[in-house]
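A quick word before the example. In earlier lectures we treated sequence and structure as two separate objects. From today on, think of them as two lines of the same record. Here is CsbD-like domain-containing protein written that way.
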Amino acid sequence: MTEKISNALNSHIGGAKETIGNITRNPNLAASGAAQKAQADSAQQMATNKIRTEGVGHSVEGEAQQKIGALTGDTAMESRGIGNQALGNVQRNA
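And the structure line, produced from the sequence above:
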């Protein structure tokens, strides 16, 4: 989560630098800001994709645990499966 906060902060800082560079007619500052914003936005998208991918894994794992627990009568495993499915659903919708 701290990675996403850092990326968002860098995106806003880069955007501000780009705007200030454009207003002050400083092309180096504008270009630097644009590059910082683009890099942060790309990193943010990669972090989001990583979390969503982990969510798919948790959902699949949870479904398997839930079904195996139900078949074997292992209520603890079934409960873990329900929890993993819920975690996966939250991560996939992040």
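Notice the following. The chain has one domain: 2-92. We will return to this example when we discuss secondary structure assignment.
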